[in-house]
Specification:
Layout lengths: L8 H21 L1 H48 L13 H9 L14 H9 L5 H5 L6 H8 L5 H4 L2 H9 L3 H8 L4
């Protein structure tokens, strides 16, 4: 009978360890290991770039939210503490609409303000003709930017003058001057 080279459990363990060590050495020295590492590093770098881009975007969002908050506080600070109801509009539809919208004036009667911009103004706390009349000059540009209007629209369209006429109930004069039928 021939002698087998591996007969004891210790010899089999040694053989298994030698095979595993050889396999690991071969894997480490092959090109496949390098390609894996290169792909890993490329993915890691792309992930880091994305995290930096996200951090920049989050910073920009925080800055815009802070600016929005400042604008809302400025507008709220300039509003009278206890709002006084403006005179009722003379047109039936305006009166009905005013009733359903909680006593706010129908700002869309002002040339240059459509219903979409009226909703935006209402969300900013500008709900009465008086609010437009008393809008500080320094708040015009931030408000125009917020509404997506070109710079100078509030002055060019004479929103304050229109608001004063409508608040006073002078709808015929408003229509004559601004060509808008209130």
């Amino acid at each position: 009978m021939t002698d087998l080279p591996y007969t004891t459990p210790l010899q089999f363990i040694g053989l298994a360890l030698a095979l595993v060590a050889g396999w690991l050495l071969g894997l480490a020295s092959s090109n496949a290991g390098r390609r894996w590492r290169e792909r890993y590093e490329a993915e890691r770098d792309a992930h880091q770039a994305l995290r930096e881009e996200l951090a920049t975007a989050n910073t920009r969002i925080r800055d815009l939210e802070a600016a929005n908050s400042r604008l809302e506080r400025t507008i709220a600070d300039r509003r009278p503490a206890t709002p006084v109801a403006d005179p009722a509009p003379t047109k039936r539809d305006s009166a009905v609409r005013s009733w359903f919208y909680g006593g706010t004036d129908v700002l869309a009667r002002i040339r240059g303000i459509d219903e979409h911009r009226e909703r935006q103004l209402n969300q900013l706390g500008i709900q009465h003709f008086r609010d437009i009349e008393e809008l500080p000059r320094g708040d015009e540009l931030p408000l125009e930017e917020r509404l997506g209007l070109p710079h100078g629209t509030i002055v060019d369209e004479r929103w304050r003058e229109q608001a004063a006429l409508l608040r006073a109930g002078e709808t015929d004069e408003h229509a004559r001057r601004f060509g808008h039928h209130a």
